[in-house]
Amino acid sequence: MAKTYDPNNVFARILRGEIPCKKVLETEHALAFHDINPQAPTHILVIPKGAYVDIDDFSARATETEIAGLFRAVGEVARGAGAAEPGYRILSNCGEDANQEVPHLHIHVFAGRRLGPMIVKG
Ligand code: 5GP
C-alpha cells in the first residue's frame, strides 16, 4: 500500500519556501541544502522536489527522470563540496527501524573527515 505523504513535513515547507534553508544546489528535480545539525564537516541533504515519503516510496513511484535527477544532484553536490576525493558517504534512512525523522525522502551526504564504521553493530 502506498505511504501517505504529509504535505506539512519540514522539507515540504522548505521546498515551498515557507522556512529557510542554506541552499547548495537546485535543479529541476532536486534541492540540496545544509543539514541544520551537521554530523560531519560537510553534511548536505539532497531531496527530490516531488512528494515522496522515503526511498521505498520513491523507488516504486518516481519517474526515471526524477530518479536520475536526484542521483545526478547527489553526485554534483559531492563533487561541488570537493568530496569525490578523498571520499564521502551517502545515507538514506527509511522508516521506523532506521530512525527516519523527516518523512520526505532525503539523501544525506557526509564528508570532510574519516567517517568511521558504516553502522553500529547490534
Ligand atoms: P533523518 O533522521 O530523517 O534521516 O534525518 C533528518 C535530518 O534532517 C536530520 O539530520 C536533521 O538534522 C535534519 N533537519 C531536521 N529539520 C531540519 C530543518 O528544518 N532544516 C534543515 N536544514 N535540516 C533539518
Stated plainly, the CATH topology is called HIT family, subunit A
Domain count: the total is 1
Q: Mean of residue pLDDT?
A: 97
List the bound ligands.
guanosine-5'-monophosphate
Count of separate DSSP helical elements: 3
Give, in spatial order, the strands making up the sheet with the most strands: 1-2-3-5-4
- Beta-strand residue percentage: 15-25%
Poorly predicted regions are none
Tally of DSSP β-strands: 5
Element layout with pairings:
Layout: H1 10-15, E1 23-26, E2 30-34, E3 42-48, H2 55-61, H3 64-80, E4 88-91, E5 107-111
Antiparallel strand pairs: 1-2, 2-3, 3-5, 4-5
Guanosine-5'-monophosphate (5GP) binds at residues 10, 21, 33-37, 93, 99-102.
Summarize the structure.
The protein is an alpha+beta fold and 122 residues long.
Task: List the defining traits of the structure above.
122 residues; HIT-like; HIT-like_sf; 25% helix; Histidine_triad_HIT; 3 helices; 5-stranded antiparallel β-sheet; binds guanosine-5'-monophosphate; alpha+beta; 5 strands; globular; Histidine triad nucleotide-binding protein; single chain; HIT family, subunit A
Structure write-up:
A motif (Histidine triad motif) lies at residues 104-108. This is Histidine triad nucleotide-binding protein. InterPro entries: Histidine_triad_CS, Histidine_triad_HIT, HIT-like, HIT-like_sf. This protein is an alpha+beta fold. It has one domain (10-111): 2-Layer Sandwich (HIT family, subunit A). Helices cover 25% and strands 20% of the residues. It contains three helices and five strands, in the order H-E-E-E-H-H-E-E. Strands 1-2-3-5-4 form a five-stranded antiparallel beta sheet, covered by helices on one side. The longest helix is centred in the middle third of the chain and has 17 residues, at 64-80. It is globular, with a radius of gyration of 14 Å. The structure holds guanosine-5'-monophosphate.
